[in-house]
Amino acid sequence: MTSEPLTYAAAGVDTEAGDKAVELMKDAVRRTHGPAVLGGVGGFAGLYDLSAFRQFRRPLLATSTDGVGTKVAIAQAMDVHDTIGFDLVGMVVDDIVVVGAEPLFMTDYIATGKVVPERIADVVRGIARACEVAGTALVGGETAEHPGLLAPDEYDVAGAATGLVEADAVLGPERVRPGDVLVAMASSGLHSNGYSLVRAVVKHAGWELDRHVDEFGRTLGEELLEPTRVYASDVLALARDEAAQVHALTHVTGGGLAANLARVLPAGTVATVDRASWEVPPVFRVVRELGGVPRGDLENTLNLGVGMVAVVAADGADAALARLEALGVPAWTLGTVDVLDDAAAGEDLVSGTKGVHGGAVRLVGDYR
Question: 263 near 250, Cβ under 8 Å?
Fold first, then answer.
């Protein structure tokens, strides 16, 4: 009995398609490379020259890794793949700048059921464009074909980045004091968190992605695919502005505003967030109304229009707001930090999130 020999291609892996994808993306990747990046695209490892930072007295490396969750399902359903890279880069580099570190370089990983060169190149070109916005070099990556594990049109993306900060410039709870002011920075929409809830709401309502929604001024799919705002370079400019007196930063991702803000507050303090200080964007109101989602669940899942928060000294708040306005980042005063007294301790507070036992957050009032 004879049979045809099995090959890697017959098993579902097309290495030539992977090579073609690299050819299609390499120019976009190279545009993120400055003189500190050594070598080119396709090496076993990316090299980054740190000699420009030799003046640091005590340099600390900062690192972060993340993905974009089930938002990739929206990209796949719409067959639009050149924006998801902003979601990936934003989720990774904006965690690094929270400690005041400059994100130097990033790598990505894409797993797919079948390598379609044009689709993979679109994803990586989006990552590269977002890296340019963040001032971060894309120094390497990997595309893996997983036939039988993922459907041919399915893929997932993840990334990791490394940054550098001087030890005495690290931002965080140690710098925060009672009397500090919270400065909010607007999100561009849902960003990349809570899509399992959002997709469940959309399915429950029977809405299709091509449905035009008057509140959005575009289709549902276009709204859900709005790229994450990448704050890195703007936030670093703010942190370096001495007049702004930035003490801490938080990136509002999974868990919502209160949970992420609590992570950067010291024990014994409470941040009071005034819901009336901003108008929740339409996409969040639509999700709540379509799914009958309780306000608490919404607040614990989505960013509700706040993508980053800076904790600044009281006399630095005006300078911080002016700086952000000059950078084109919509911002406003969100609330204040106070001492957590016995009376406040009995209120409905958010604290002890992500394994961090620091300060607490209370949300007061009603949204506009």
Answer: yes
162 and 207 co-located in one domain: no
| Helix, strand, coil share (%) of the chain residues, nearest 5 | 35, 25, 40
1 in a domain, yes or no? no
**Verdict on whether the full-model pTM lies above 0.70:** yes
Sign of CA dihedral 171, 175, 176, 181: negative
CA distances from 119 to 56, 80, 161 (A): 41, 9, 23
Tens digit of each residue's pLDDT (9 = 90 or more) over 192-221: 999 999 999 999 999 999 999 999 999 999
Same domain for 309 and 184? yes
Our count of domains for the chain comes to 2
β-pairing, 102-112 vs 137-145, is parallel
Name the DSSP letter for residue 5: P
- Which residue's structure tokens are 């890279």? 85
Domain with 89, as residue range(s), is: 13-49+56-166
In a domain, 3, yes or no: no
CB-count burial class (<10 Å; 0-12, 13-18, 19+) for 205: middle
Identify the bridge partners of residue 147 per DSSP, sorted by sequence position.
150
Co-location of 124 and 199 in the same domain: no
Residue with tokens 């409470």: 270
Give the per-residue pLDDT at 368. Answer: 87
Same domain, 63 and 152: yes
Q: Is the residue at 227 inside a domain?
A: yes
Strand pairing category for 331-339 and 269-274: antiparallel
H helices present in the chain, as ranges = 15-30, 71-78, 84-96, 117-134, 195-205, 220-224, 232-239, 256-262, 282-291, 295-299, 317-327, 342-345
Residue 309, in any domain of the structure:
yes
Per cent of the chain over pLDDT 90 is: 84
